[in-house]
């Protein structure tokens, strides 16, 4: 209530500045976003507005996806292998260092630009989108935020120009309970020795740079977790490549570290702060996954809708039957809602505002919407939706990962509930 | 094994010689719950469950990856008497009830929905069509083969006629002592393994759908497999495009009456959808049966993940929905057996069971986390297999249409 009393005069001021004549109506702002509304002289545009740079990137990526990726999507999915040429092409097009500073070889774009790139790629291939997303929003970001000058110079340029990166936190016994990780880092004077195993590691089949979370002091519990930058040639072993339901061409592997020597200089940030970096990275990384999910939803939708107006039964296009109309209208609503949540979370982050709850909500909703939209898209196309030839069933398979990785649906709900309840305790 | 058992259990107590399809001659218990089964039905359930676990289960993943049904599995279905469940003993069938067939389909689907659909089509579409509408000659010639060693296929859909089935274009021309068939069918299940095809073709397009006639066509008469589809799910079940190029079909091979094919198709699909409902039920249960034990093996935050309240409420909800789907399915089957009108209930069973199958499999993957997403565990397969339930044997929209029509007729 006190929040409302201090805010009211300012709100009244901003209302009158914009020249509105309507009487001011008191609202209960505590039911809106956690961080509450902020006051400004310049009201925001809709979330469908972007900077010129952002739009330019969106168009570039959309064209890249259509021209370079699309012809190879099915082949990559059936073979469960990502084309090296496509990955090289992504580097050449500047898609692998989206937020990295220009003087380090990056594109120095906004976070929203990165989100748009991930979305556009996912409209064509959620596997390629996953590679780009994890490389940018997890690997690049964690180094950009916590690396000292040396590490940034040493690795960000490589990551922006020619080397795929991987983010290694999960283990067989540490999924949702990430901090139960067992990979051990022993201080050996001028280097650390890493021992252990990681599981579910995306990009690991193609990566040469690995950000690995290991515990340098188990007596401190999770406060011993430290982030290390590990190069493949130091002994990172791919023990197993998983066979998956979806995002098949995205490599997901089990990694082994057997007495891997990591120089002291390769500690990312501070020893024992790794858990913080992990939470922080995943909080923003999930906006990336939300973007991937809305891309998948739209990709399926864009295949099914034209079909519904080509396919005739009972003398008319199936898209003109009322029930069908209501279904695709409903799905369009849901995709729009998920999109707005995703873009808004991205803008909140850029503004420096608290966005953890909104990011969790965006990922949760986007993953659900993606599953629903892709499921409907298969049904709308009937038998043709069920065959791999038309490409729509792939989105259905790919969408399922959204409710699992970078924090399961249950974990998102946990996060959201925790933040909401702080207001009531 | 089943046939001898069936003979010893069933025949002794029933009035012979004319055995009614709906078993209306049998005394029924009007106060029993749907969890009540005859000894024969329960025995069949056990037999199939054992067969599915011992013979099919070890081959499921490889058949799915290869997109081919193992010949020994098909042979096993015949050997166990599962390919002529309702067929009378005099035609070498197992002589069991409709609910028995439903139970067989469900039990198979808990292990492999691809094998289940082969058995479902064989029994509830092909076998039943011949039993209901075939004359004695056709029954004698085809029922024993279908029950003991020949896979059958039901050929109605075409590229231009899916939901609008009666817009079919395959043509049959009367050539004196035989018919000549020309045209093409699409989405035909079992066609890769079948030798007997029930083909719906139009003998008299001037009469519209009232020219549609059902023909029993043997593969050697010239049925050509033009293309095998690469699918999302039920990959080991062959789904093909068939071509008929001047195929000669003897006059004796008309099933039932000329021009009544459309009626047979509607009627058979009305009951066939209870079979699909059973397959969907098996899928939901199969996925659930993999995920639940995992919830009590997997620990995170020092707790079995199945003990977190959020999880508990989720699996309780799914258990409830599977139970509801089961009751809809079994009830529709019993209504049919009683001789009641069951069309609305059959449509509801299929619609609901297919929705729950997708939902349960989706949740089962989530409960198993990363492991659920791998093909190794086997749960993701149910998610892929479930999707066909909303499409074949009448899309979900068509089920809704059917239900709406029947419901609104009460208010008009």
UniProtKB/TrEMBL annotation, chain A:
Identification of the protein by name: Short/branched chain specific acyl-CoA dehydrogenase, mitochondrial
Q: Which GO terms describe its biological process?
A: carboxylic acid catabolic process; fatty acid metabolic process
Show the PROSITE patterns listed in the entry.
Answer: ACYL_COA_DH_1 (PS00072), ACYL_COA_DH_2 (PS00073)
Query: Self-association or partners: how does it assemble?
Result: Homotetramer.
PANTHER family hit by this protein: ACYL-COA DEHYDROGENASE, SHORT_BRANCHED CHAIN SPECIFIC ACYL-COA DEHYDROGENASE, MITOCHONDRIAL
- Look up the record and name the pathway of this protein: Amino-acid degradation; L-isoleucine degradation; Lipid metabolism; mitochondrial fatty acid beta-oxidation
Alphabetized, the UniProt keywords read: Acetylation, FAD, Fatty acid metabolism, Flavoprotein, Lipid metabolism, Mitochondrion, Oxidoreductase, Phosphoprotein, Transit peptide
Mind telling me which Gene3D superfamilies this protein's record contains?
Answer: Acyl-CoA dehydrogenase/oxidase, N-terminal domain (1.10.540.10), Butyryl-CoA Dehydrogenase, subunit A, domain 2 (2.40.110.10), Butyryl-CoA Dehydrogenase, subunit A, domain 3 (1.20.140.10)
List the coiled-coil residues. Answer: none
From TrEMBL, chain B:
Provide the Acyl-CoA oxidase/dehydrogenase middle domain boundaries.
153-246
Q: Please state the protein's primary subcellular location.
A: mitochondrion
Q: Give the reaction(s) catalysed.
A: hexanoyl-CoA + oxidized [electron-transfer flavoprotein] + H(+) = (2E)-hexenoyl-CoA + reduced [electron-transfer flavoprotein]; butanoyl-CoA + oxidized [electron-transfer flavoprotein] + H(+) = (2E)-butenoyl-CoA + reduced [electron-transfer flavoprotein]; 2-methylpropanoyl-CoA + oxidized [electron-transfer flavoprotein] + H(+) = 2-methylpropenoyl-CoA + reduced [electron-transfer flavoprotein]; valproyl-CoA + oxidized [electron-transfer flavoprotein] + H(+) = (2E)-2-propylpent-2-enoyl-CoA + reduced [electron-transfer flavoprotein]
The answer to whether keyword Oxidoreductase applies is: yes
> Looking at the UniProt record for this protein, which Gene Ontology cellular component terms does it annotate, in alphabetical order?
mitochondrial matrix
Q: Which SUPFAM superfamilies match?
A: Acyl-CoA dehydrogenase C-terminal domain-like, Acyl-CoA dehydrogenase NM domain-like
Tell me which residues make up the Acyl-CoA dehydrogenase/oxidase C-terminal domain: 259-405
For biological process, the GO terms are: carboxylic acid catabolic process; fatty acid metabolic process
Superkingdom, natural source: Eukaryota
Listed PROSITE patterns: ACYL_COA_DH_1, ACYL_COA_DH_2
Molecular function via GO: flavin adenine dinucleotide binding; short-chain 2-methyl fatty acyl-CoA dehydrogenase activity
**Which subcellular locations apply to this protein?**
Mitochondrion matrix
| EC number(s) recorded for this UniProt protein | 1.3.8.5
Per UniProt, subunit arrangement is: Homotetramer.
Q: What is the similarity comment for this entry?
A: Belongs to the acyl-CoA dehydrogenase family.
The entry's protein name is Short/branched chain specific acyl-CoA dehydrogenase, mitochondrial
Q: Which organism is it from?
A: Circinella minor
């Amino acid at each position: 209530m006190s929040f409302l009393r201090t805010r009211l005069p300012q709100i009244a001021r901003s209302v009158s500045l914009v020249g509105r004549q309507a009487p001011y109506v008191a609202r209960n702002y505590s039911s809106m976003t956690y961080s509450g509304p902020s006051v400004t002289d310049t009201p925001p545009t809709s979330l469908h507005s972007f900077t010129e740079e952002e739009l330019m990137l969106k168009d570039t990526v959309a064209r890249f996806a259509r021209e370079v990726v699309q012809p190879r999507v099915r082949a990559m999915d059936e073979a469960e292998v990502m084309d090296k040429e496509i990955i090289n092409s992504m580097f050449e097009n500047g898609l692998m260092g989206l937020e990295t500073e220009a003087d380090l070889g990056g594109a120095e774009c906004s976070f929203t630009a990165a989100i748009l790139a991930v979305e556009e790629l996912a409209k064509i291939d959620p596997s390629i989108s996953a590679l780009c997303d994890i490389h940018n929003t997890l690997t690049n970001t964690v180094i950009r935020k916590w690396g000292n000058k040396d590490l940034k110079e040493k690795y960000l340029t490589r990551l922006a120009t020619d080397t795929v990166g991987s983010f290694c936190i999960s283990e067989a016994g540490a999924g949702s309970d990430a901090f139960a990780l067992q990979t051990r880092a022993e201080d050996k004077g001028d280097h650390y020795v890493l021992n252990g195993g990681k599981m579910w590691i995306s990009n690991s089949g193609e990566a040469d740079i690995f950000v690995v979370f290991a515990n340098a002091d188990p007596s401190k519990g999770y406060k011993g977790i430290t982030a290390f930058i590990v190069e493949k040639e130091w002994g990172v072993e791919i023990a197993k490549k998983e066979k998956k339901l979806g995002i098949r061409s995205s490599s997901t592997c089990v990694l082994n570290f057997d007495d891997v020597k990591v120089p002291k200089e390769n500690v990312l940030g501070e020893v024992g702060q790794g858990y913080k970096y992990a939470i922080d990275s995943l909080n923003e990384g999930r906006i990336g996954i939300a973007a991937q999910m809305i891309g998948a939803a739209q990709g399926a939708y864009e295949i099914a809708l034209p079909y519904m107006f080509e396919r005739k039964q009972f003398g008319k296009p199936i898209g003109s039957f009322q029930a069908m109309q209501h279904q695709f209208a409903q799905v369009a609503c849901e995709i729009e809602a998920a999109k707005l949540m995703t873009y808004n979370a991205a803008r909140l982050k850029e503004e420096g505002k608290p966005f953890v709850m909104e990011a969790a909500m965006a990922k949760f909703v986007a993953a659900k919407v993606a599953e629903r939209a892709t499921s409907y898209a298969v049904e709308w196309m009937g038998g043709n939706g069920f065959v791999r030839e038309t490409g729509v069933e792939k989105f259905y398979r790919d969408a399922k990962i959204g409710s699992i990785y970078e924090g399961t649906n249950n974990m998102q709900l946990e996060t959201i509930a925790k933040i909401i309840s702080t207001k009531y305790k | 094994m089943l046939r001898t058992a069936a003979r010893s259990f069933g025949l002794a107590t029933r009035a012979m010689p004319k055995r009614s399809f709906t078993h209306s001659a049998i005394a029924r218990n009007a106060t029993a719950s749907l969890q009540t089964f005859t000894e024969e039905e329960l025995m069949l359930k056990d037999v199939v469950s054992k067969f599915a676990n011992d013979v099919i289960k070890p081959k499921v993943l490889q058949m799915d990856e290869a997109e081919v049904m193992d010949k020994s599995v098909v042979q096993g279905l015949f050997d166990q008497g599962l390919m002529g469940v309702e067929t009378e003993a005099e035609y070498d069938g197992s002589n069991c009830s409709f609910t028995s067939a439903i139970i067989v389909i469900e039990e198979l689907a808990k292990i492999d929905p691809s094998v289940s659909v082969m058995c479902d089509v064989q029994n509830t579409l092909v076998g039943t069509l011949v039993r209901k509408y075939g004359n004695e000659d056709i029954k004698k010639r085809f029922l024993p083969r279908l029950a003991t060693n020949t896979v059958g296929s039901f050929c109605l859909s075409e590229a231009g006629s899916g939901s609008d089935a009666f817009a079919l274009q395959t043509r049959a021309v009367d050539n004196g002592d035989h018919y000549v068939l020309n045209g093409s069918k699409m989405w035909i299940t079992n066609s890769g393994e079948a030798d007997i095809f029930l083909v719906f073709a139009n003998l008299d397009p001037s009469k519209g759908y009232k020219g549609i006639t059902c023909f029993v066509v043997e593969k050697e008469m010239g049925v050509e497999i033009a293309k095998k589809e690469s699918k999302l799910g039920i990959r080991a079940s062959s789904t093909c495009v068939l071509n008929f190029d001047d195929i000669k079909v003897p006059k004796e091979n008309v099933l039932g009456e000329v021009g009544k094919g459309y009626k047979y198709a509607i009627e058979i699909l009305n009951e066939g959808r209870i079979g699909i409902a059973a397959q969907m039920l098996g899928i939901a249960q199969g996925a659930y049966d993999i995920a639940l034990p995992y919830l009590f093996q997997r620990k995170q935050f020092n707790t079995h993940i199945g003990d977190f309240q959020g999880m508990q409420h989720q699996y309780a909800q799914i258990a409830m929905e599977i139970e509801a789907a089961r009751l809809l399915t079994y009830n529709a089957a019993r209504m049919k057996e009683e001789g009641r009108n069951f069309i609305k209930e059959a449509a509801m069973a299929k619609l609901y069971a297919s929705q729950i199958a997708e939902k349960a499999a989706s949740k089962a993957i989530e409960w198993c986390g990363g492991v659920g997403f791998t093909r190794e565990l086997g749960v993701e397969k149910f998610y892929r297999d479930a999707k066909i339930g909303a499409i074949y044997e009448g899309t979900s929209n068509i089920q809704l249409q059917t239900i709406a029509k029947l419901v609104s007729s009460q208010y008009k």
